[in-house]
Protein backbone atom coordinates (compact mmCIF):
# COMPACT_ATOMS: atom_id res chain seq x y z
CA UNK A 1 0.00 0.00 0.00
CA UNK A 2 1.34 3.48 -0.82
CA UNK A 3 1.40 6.63 1.28
CA UNK A 4 -2.01 7.80 -0.01
CA UNK A 5 -3.58 4.57 1.22
CA UNK A 6 -4.55 3.58 -2.30
CA UNK A 7 -3.94 0.03 -3.37
CA UNK A 8 -1.76 -0.81 -6.34
CA UNK A 9 -2.50 -2.49 -9.66
CA UNK A 10 0.01 -5.09 -10.86
CA UNK A 11 -0.14 -5.86 -14.59
CA UNK A 12 1.12 -9.43 -14.79
CA UNK A 13 2.18 -11.48 -17.81
CA UNK A 14 1.24 -15.16 -17.69
CA UNK A 15 2.48 -18.13 -19.77
CA UNK A 16 1.40 -18.38 -23.42
CA UNK A 17 1.55 -22.18 -23.32
CA UNK A 18 4.24 -23.74 -21.17
CA UNK A 19 3.37 -23.12 -17.52
CA UNK A 20 7.07 -22.82 -16.65
CA UNK A 21 7.28 -19.56 -18.62
CA UNK A 22 6.39 -17.32 -15.68
CA UNK A 23 8.69 -15.09 -13.68
CA UNK A 24 9.43 -15.45 -9.98
CA UNK A 25 8.20 -11.89 -9.54
CA UNK A 26 4.80 -12.67 -11.07
CA UNK A 27 4.41 -15.74 -8.86
CA UNK A 28 5.26 -13.73 -5.77
CA UNK A 29 2.87 -10.96 -6.81
CA UNK A 30 0.00 -13.37 -7.43
CA UNK A 31 0.51 -14.80 -3.95
CA UNK A 32 0.74 -11.44 -2.18
CA UNK A 33 -2.06 -9.38 -3.75
CA UNK A 34 -5.54 -9.27 -2.28
CA UNK A 35 -7.32 -10.12 -5.51
CA UNK A 36 -6.58 -11.37 -9.04
CA UNK A 37 -8.66 -9.91 -11.88
CA UNK A 38 -8.61 -12.64 -14.55
CA UNK A 39 -9.94 -12.73 -18.11
CA UNK A 40 -11.23 -16.28 -17.53
CA UNK A 41 -11.10 -17.46 -13.92
CA UNK A 42 -11.37 -21.12 -14.99
CA UNK A 43 -8.31 -20.78 -17.20
CA UNK A 44 -6.29 -18.87 -14.59
CA UNK A 45 -7.27 -21.40 -11.90
CA UNK A 46 -5.18 -24.04 -13.72
CA UNK A 47 -2.13 -21.79 -13.39
CA UNK A 48 -2.83 -20.99 -9.73
CA UNK A 49 -3.36 -24.66 -8.87
CA UNK A 50 -0.12 -25.59 -10.63
CA UNK A 51 1.78 -23.23 -8.33
CA UNK A 52 -0.44 -23.75 -5.26
CA UNK A 53 -1.60 -20.12 -5.15
CA UNK A 54 -4.79 -19.54 -3.15
CA UNK A 55 -5.45 -15.84 -3.86
CA UNK A 56 -9.14 -15.14 -4.63
CA UNK A 57 -10.11 -14.21 -8.19
CA UNK A 58 -12.74 -12.16 -9.96
CA UNK A 59 -13.55 -12.15 -13.68
CA UNK A 60 -12.58 -9.17 -15.82
CA UNK A 61 -13.22 -9.52 -19.55
CA UNK A 62 -14.51 -7.57 -22.57
CA UNK A 63 -18.17 -8.30 -21.75
CA UNK A 64 -18.12 -6.99 -18.16
CA UNK A 65 -15.30 -4.45 -18.52
CA UNK A 66 -17.47 -1.38 -17.93
CA UNK A 67 -19.22 -2.59 -14.78
CA UNK A 68 -16.31 -4.52 -13.30
CA UNK A 69 -13.96 -1.54 -13.72
CA UNK A 70 -16.05 0.40 -11.21
CA UNK A 71 -15.87 -2.27 -8.50
CA UNK A 72 -12.14 -2.86 -9.05
CA UNK A 73 -11.51 0.88 -8.89
CA UNK A 74 -13.31 1.15 -5.56
CA UNK A 75 -11.32 -1.76 -4.11
CA UNK A 76 -8.06 -0.10 -5.14
CA UNK A 77 -9.14 3.24 -3.69
CA UNK A 78 -9.97 1.40 -0.45
CA UNK A 79 -6.41 0.05 -0.31
CA UNK A 80 -6.62 -3.38 -1.94
CA UNK A 81 -3.75 -4.57 -4.14
CA UNK A 82 -4.92 -6.23 -7.36
CA UNK A 83 -3.15 -8.28 -10.03
CA UNK A 84 -4.51 -8.05 -13.58
CA UNK A 85 -3.95 -11.11 -15.79
CA UNK A 86 -5.24 -12.29 -19.16
CA UNK A 87 -5.56 -15.89 -20.31
CA UNK A 88 -2.04 -15.75 -21.71
CA UNK A 89 0.70 -13.21 -22.29
CA UNK A 90 0.45 -9.55 -21.37
CA UNK A 91 -2.90 -7.93 -20.52
CA UNK A 92 -3.84 -5.13 -22.91
CA UNK A 93 -2.19 -6.76 -25.95
CA UNK A 94 -5.22 -8.02 -27.91
CA UNK A 95 -6.69 -8.81 -24.48
CA UNK A 96 -8.72 -6.84 -21.91
CA UNK A 97 -6.86 -4.36 -19.75
CA UNK A 98 -6.11 -1.24 -21.79
CA UNK A 99 -9.23 0.66 -20.73
CA UNK A 100 -8.66 -0.18 -17.07
CA UNK A 101 -5.04 0.96 -17.25
CA UNK A 102 -6.02 4.19 -19.02
CA UNK A 103 -8.63 4.92 -16.37
CA UNK A 104 -6.17 4.34 -13.53
CA UNK A 105 -3.72 6.78 -15.08
CA UNK A 106 -6.46 9.40 -14.94
CA UNK A 107 -7.21 8.54 -11.30
CA UNK A 108 -3.47 8.44 -10.45
CA UNK A 109 -3.78 4.91 -9.06
CA UNK A 110 -0.28 3.39 -8.73
CA UNK A 111 0.63 0.63 -11.18
CA UNK A 112 3.53 -1.73 -11.75
CA UNK A 113 4.28 -3.90 -14.76
CA UNK A 114 5.43 -7.47 -14.17
CA UNK A 115 6.56 -8.48 -17.68
CA UNK A 116 6.91 -11.90 -19.20
CA UNK A 117 5.94 -14.01 -22.20
CA UNK A 118 4.49 -12.43 -25.34
CA UNK A 119 3.29 -14.43 -28.34
CA UNK A 120 3.90 -11.62 -30.82
CA UNK A 121 7.52 -10.99 -29.82
CA UNK A 122 8.25 -14.72 -29.56
CA UNK A 123 6.89 -15.36 -33.06
CA UNK A 124 8.83 -12.41 -34.48
CA UNK A 125 12.09 -13.82 -33.16
CA UNK A 126 11.26 -17.37 -34.31
CA UNK A 127 10.35 -16.14 -37.81
CA UNK A 128 13.87 -15.07 -38.71
CA UNK A 129 12.43 -11.99 -40.44
CA UNK A 130 13.65 -8.47 -39.68
CA UNK A 131 12.94 -7.65 -36.03
CA UNK A 132 14.59 -4.22 -35.95
CA UNK A 133 11.44 -2.47 -37.18
CA UNK A 134 8.05 -4.14 -36.98
CA UNK A 135 4.35 -3.31 -36.82
CA UNK A 136 2.08 -5.25 -34.46
CA UNK A 137 -1.44 -5.46 -35.90
CA UNK A 138 -2.98 -8.07 -33.59
CA UNK A 139 -6.23 -9.53 -34.96
CA UNK A 140 -7.55 -8.09 -38.22
CA UNK A 141 -11.02 -6.50 -37.91
CA UNK A 142 -13.97 -8.84 -38.46
CA UNK A 143 -16.18 -6.28 -40.23
CA UNK A 144 -15.54 -6.46 -43.99
CA UNK A 145 -15.08 -2.76 -44.69
CA UNK A 146 -12.66 -2.25 -41.78
CA UNK A 147 -10.85 -5.46 -42.67
CA UNK A 148 -10.29 -4.32 -46.27
CA UNK A 149 -9.00 -0.97 -45.02
CA UNK A 150 -6.59 -2.69 -42.63
CA UNK A 151 -5.30 -4.98 -45.38
CA UNK A 152 -4.83 -2.02 -47.73
CA UNK A 153 -2.77 -0.25 -45.06
CA UNK A 154 -0.69 -3.36 -44.37
CA UNK A 155 0.05 -3.74 -48.09
CA UNK A 156 2.26 -0.63 -48.07
CA UNK A 157 3.79 -1.19 -44.61
CA UNK A 158 7.57 -1.47 -44.98
CA UNK A 159 8.14 -2.86 -41.48
CA UNK A 160 7.73 -6.55 -40.66
CA UNK A 161 4.06 -7.19 -39.80
CA UNK A 162 2.89 -9.33 -36.86
CA UNK A 163 -0.69 -10.64 -36.90
CA UNK A 164 -2.77 -12.96 -34.71
CA UNK A 165 -5.30 -15.33 -36.27
CA UNK A 166 -7.72 -18.00 -35.07
CA UNK A 167 -7.34 -21.49 -36.60
CA UNK A 168 -10.80 -21.48 -38.24
CA UNK A 169 -9.98 -18.23 -40.06
CA UNK A 170 -6.34 -18.96 -40.89
CA UNK A 171 -6.75 -20.09 -44.49
CA UNK A 172 -9.08 -17.24 -45.46
CA UNK A 173 -6.73 -14.73 -43.78
CA UNK A 174 -3.75 -16.10 -45.74
CA UNK A 175 -5.74 -15.84 -48.97
CA UNK A 176 -6.70 -12.24 -48.19
CA UNK A 177 -3.08 -11.38 -47.48
CA UNK A 178 -2.10 -12.90 -50.82
CA UNK A 179 -4.75 -10.85 -52.63
CA UNK A 180 -3.68 -7.56 -51.04
CA UNK A 181 0.08 -8.05 -50.56
CA UNK A 182 1.03 -10.39 -53.38
CA UNK A 183 3.26 -13.43 -52.93
CA UNK A 184 5.05 -12.00 -49.88
CA UNK A 185 7.42 -13.95 -47.63
CA UNK A 186 5.72 -15.12 -44.43
CA UNK A 187 6.35 -17.21 -41.33
CA UNK A 188 3.39 -18.97 -39.73
CA UNK A 189 4.23 -19.73 -36.11
CA UNK A 190 2.02 -22.25 -34.34
CA UNK A 191 1.59 -23.39 -30.72
CA UNK A 192 4.40 -21.24 -29.30
CA UNK A 193 6.10 -22.86 -26.24
CA UNK A 194 3.81 -25.90 -26.48
CA UNK A 195 4.57 -29.50 -27.45
CA UNK A 196 3.81 -29.01 -31.15
CA UNK A 197 5.51 -25.64 -31.59
CA UNK A 198 6.19 -25.12 -35.29
CA UNK A 199 7.50 -22.43 -37.64
CA UNK A 200 6.55 -22.77 -41.30
CA UNK A 201 8.26 -20.30 -43.64
CA UNK A 202 7.77 -19.61 -47.32
CA UNK A 203 5.93 -17.36 -49.73
CA UNK A 204 2.21 -16.89 -49.23
CA UNK A 205 1.29 -19.09 -52.22
CA UNK A 206 3.32 -21.99 -50.76
CA UNK A 207 1.88 -21.55 -47.28
CA UNK A 208 -1.71 -21.36 -48.61
CA UNK A 209 -1.17 -24.60 -50.53
CA UNK A 210 0.20 -26.32 -47.43
CA UNK A 211 -2.70 -25.34 -45.16
CA UNK A 212 -5.22 -26.11 -47.90
CA UNK A 213 -3.92 -29.70 -47.87
CA UNK A 214 -3.21 -30.18 -44.15
CA UNK A 215 -5.16 -29.97 -40.92
CA UNK A 216 -5.17 -26.57 -39.19
CA UNK A 217 -4.82 -26.87 -35.42
CA UNK A 218 -3.54 -24.65 -32.62
CA UNK A 219 -2.93 -20.96 -32.00
CA UNK A 220 -1.28 -18.99 -34.80
CA UNK A 221 0.88 -15.89 -35.20
CA UNK A 222 1.62 -14.64 -38.73
CA UNK A 223 4.84 -12.74 -39.37
CA UNK A 224 4.88 -11.11 -42.80
CA UNK A 225 7.78 -9.44 -44.59
CA UNK A 226 7.34 -5.71 -45.08
CA UNK A 227 6.70 -4.06 -48.41
CA UNK A 228 9.67 -3.35 -50.67
CA UNK A 229 9.61 0.32 -51.73
CA UNK A 230 9.12 1.07 -55.41
CA UNK A 231 11.94 2.70 -57.36
CA UNK A 232 10.00 5.99 -57.21
CA UNK A 233 9.60 5.79 -53.46
CA UNK A 234 12.88 4.72 -51.89
CA UNK A 235 13.42 5.88 -48.29
CA UNK A 236 14.86 9.37 -48.18
CA UNK A 237 17.01 8.25 -45.25
CA UNK A 238 19.99 6.46 -46.80
CA UNK A 239 20.45 4.34 -43.68
CA UNK A 240 17.06 2.67 -44.20
CA UNK A 241 17.69 2.20 -47.90
CA UNK A 242 21.03 0.46 -47.37
CA UNK A 243 19.84 -1.54 -44.38
CA UNK A 244 16.83 -2.72 -46.35
CA UNK A 245 19.27 -4.69 -48.50
CA UNK A 246 21.48 -5.69 -45.56
CA UNK A 247 18.42 -7.27 -43.93
CA UNK A 248 17.86 -9.20 -47.16
CA UNK A 249 21.28 -10.81 -46.70
CA UNK A 250 23.59 -8.52 -48.67
CA UNK A 251 26.91 -7.28 -47.33
CA UNK A 252 27.14 -3.56 -46.55
CA UNK A 253 29.18 -2.95 -49.70
CA UNK A 254 26.69 -4.83 -51.88
CA UNK A 255 23.82 -2.97 -50.22
CA UNK A 256 25.43 0.42 -50.79
CA UNK A 257 26.11 -0.45 -54.42
CA UNK A 258 22.47 -1.50 -54.93
CA UNK A 259 21.16 1.63 -53.17
CA UNK A 260 23.38 3.82 -55.35
CA UNK A 261 22.02 2.12 -58.47
CA UNK A 262 18.43 2.61 -57.26
CA UNK A 263 19.06 6.32 -56.74
CA UNK A 264 21.12 6.84 -59.86
CA UNK A 265 24.12 8.22 -57.96
CA UNK A 266 27.73 7.18 -57.46
CA UNK A 267 28.41 4.49 -54.87
CA UNK A 268 30.99 6.78 -53.26
CA UNK A 269 28.24 9.31 -52.44
CA UNK A 270 26.11 6.68 -50.73
CA UNK A 271 29.18 5.29 -48.93
CA UNK A 272 30.13 8.73 -47.60
CA UNK A 273 26.60 9.54 -46.40
CA UNK A 274 26.05 6.10 -44.85
CA UNK A 275 29.45 5.82 -43.14
CA UNK A 276 29.60 9.38 -41.84
CA UNK A 277 26.03 9.33 -40.57
CA UNK A 278 25.09 12.32 -42.71
CA UNK A 279 21.65 10.87 -43.33
CA UNK A 280 20.18 14.31 -44.02
CA UNK A 281 21.87 14.17 -47.42
CA UNK A 282 18.98 13.38 -49.75
CA UNK A 283 20.67 11.37 -52.50
CA UNK A 284 18.05 10.77 -55.15
CA UNK A 285 18.36 10.19 -58.85
CA UNK A 286 16.07 13.07 -59.76
CA UNK A 287 18.51 15.46 -58.03
CA UNK A 288 21.57 14.16 -59.76
CA UNK A 289 20.43 13.53 -63.33
Structure description:
With 289 residues, the chain is of the alpha/beta class. The chain has three domains: 9-117, Tetrapyrrole methylase, N-terminal domain (Cobalt-precorrin-4 Transmethylase, domain 1); 120-224, Methyltransferase, Cobalt-precorrin-4 Transmethylase, Domain 2; 231-280, no CATH class. Helices cover 40% and strands 17% of the residues. The chain has helices spanning 24-32, 41-50, 65-77, 98-106, 119-127, 144-155, 170-181, 204-213, 238-246, 252-263, 267-276; strands at 9-12, 35-38, 57-59, 82-85, 111-114, 134-139, 160-165, 185-190, 198-203, 220-224. The strands form two sheets. A five-stranded parallel beta sheet has the order 3-2-4-1-5, sandwiched between helices. A five-stranded mixed beta sheet has the order 6-7-10-8-9. Helix 2 (41-50) links the parallel strand 2 (35-38) and strand 3 (57-59). The longest helix has 13 residues, at 65-77. The model is unreliable at 279-289 (pLDDT under 50).
Task: Output the keywords.
single chain, 289 residues, Cobalt-precorrin-4 Transmethylase, domain 1, Methyltransferase, Cobalt-precorrin-4 Transmethylase, Domain 2, 3 domains, five-stranded mixed sheet, 40% helix, globular
Amino acid sequence: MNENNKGQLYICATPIGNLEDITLRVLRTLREVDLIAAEDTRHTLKLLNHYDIKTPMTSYHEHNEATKSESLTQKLLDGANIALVSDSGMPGISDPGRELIRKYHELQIPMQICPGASAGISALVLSGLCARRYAFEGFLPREKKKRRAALASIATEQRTIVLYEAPHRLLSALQELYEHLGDREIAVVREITKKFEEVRRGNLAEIIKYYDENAIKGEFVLVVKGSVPSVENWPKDIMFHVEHYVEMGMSEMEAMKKAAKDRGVAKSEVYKAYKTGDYKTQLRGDQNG
